[in-house]
Write a structure and sequence with these properties.
Elements (H helix, E strand, L loop, with lengths): L18 H13 L30 E5 L7 H7 L5 E10 L5 E9 L2 H8 L4 E3 L2 E7 L2 H8 L4 H7 L5 E6 L7 H9 L14 E5 L5 E9 L4 H6 L5 E2 L2 E2 L1 E4 L2 H11 L13 H4 L7 H5 L18 H8 L8
Antiparallel strand pairs: 1-3, 1-5, 2-3, 4-5, 6-8, 6-11, 7-8, 9-10
Length: 318
């Protein structure tokens, strides 16, 4: 006989490559009277899901991750927490006031035990970036991921495996043009449910913003769709990003708020004079040559205008 000495509170990790050993080990445990009533399973991928503004989220199940690469998707973040179960639709990418990802995300886990284990990933790495992980609240998650927009709810309940965000669309772009954009070229893919699988983001007055979300039925369509990043519709190059249900909710919520599109008033000259200027020698004295300065930009220039100006070089921005 084998003396196992295993208690009911011990954790057994099964490695598929050691199947024969595990089979013998399990036989010994059963022989000694151990039972396996509630085995815990770990999800191998993040499942999509929708969160409403009225939903209650446990404060002990949420973390905030900072320092994420701006191009990181919800699947990338779920892989960072591999071995822990993230709730369905439980990755909410935070956006800046300009609607771009700011390197933060809120992650909702299925229980407190998994949340506590997630906190131990603090300062672990994604590629060459270390990620900070802190406690967050259920309210934090709802503020980012929750939504009441009926169009978004109907769009997100179609059961798509992949959501792609499009930026830089012509303001008169149609759903038919979006479908054709993905169906032509070297890696064609079909939009789920045709024109119903395209959701344009509009301002409160109904005008286009140049953004849209597109649904694809299966995971295999994701790399095909993203391969069309920076291709043209008309004369405009289109940016493509893997998106999430939470991001759709967040963008649609903001698009219906008139304050989102208000142009801020310029600071009075009295305030501008109080802003300290950084001396030139402090800027250029570093040994690393990985930054550039742009001067002479139009006052109304936004991040997307700078990315368009940089062209293919924008892909190297960290």
């Amino acid at each position: 006989t084998v003396q196992t000495g295993i208690l009911s509170t011990d954790v057994l990790v099964v490695q598929p490559s050691n199947g024969l050993f595990i089979c013998s080990f399990r036989t010994c445990l059963i022989f000694e009277g151990h039972t396996f009533n509630n085995p815990e399973t770990i999800d191998d991928k993040l499942e999509p899901g929708i969160c409403s503004k009225n939903e209650e989220v446990d404060n002990n199940c949420v973390v905030r991750a900072r320092g994420l690469p701006w191009q990181a998707s919800d699947q990338d973040i779920a892989k960072f927490f591999r071995g822990l179960n993230v709730a369905k639709g439980g990755v909410a990418l935070c956006l800046s006031l300009q609607g771009r990802r700011n390197g933060e995300a809120l992650i909702r886990f299925v229980n407190q035990e998994h949340r506590d284990l997630a906190l131990k990933r603090h300062k672990h790495h994604i590629n060459n970036r270390y990620i900070e992980v802190y406690k967050a609240t259920g309210e934090d998650f709802i503020n980012v991921a929750g939504g009441r927009n009926m169009d978004a709810q109907a769009f997100l309940t179609r059961g798509a495996q992949v959501i792609i965000r499009m930026r830089g669309l012509p303001y008169d772009c149609t759903a038919k043009q979006v479908i054709e954009f993905f169906e032509v070229g070297e890696n064609p893919c079909s939009v789920m449910d045709g024109e119903e699988g395209v959701l344009f983001v509009k301002k409160p007055d109904g005008r286009a913003t140049g953004d849209a979300f597109v649904l694809f039925a299966v995971e295999e369509d994701s790399p095909k769709a993203l391969s069309k990043h920076r291709e043209l519709i008309g004369t405009r190059y289109i940016e493509l990003f893997r998106s999430t249900t939470a991001e759709v909710q967040q963008v649609l919520n903001r698009s219906m708020d008139p304050k989102t599109f208000e142009t801020p008033l310029p600071l009075p000259l009295t305030q501008l004079s109080q802003v300290p200027l950084v001396p030139q020698h402090f800027i250029t004295s570093g040994t690393r040559k990985d930054c550039i300065r742009l001067r002479g930009l139009p006052y109304e220039a936004q991040v997307e205008h700078i990315l368009e100006f940089l062209g293919d070089h924008a892909k190297s921005i960290v």
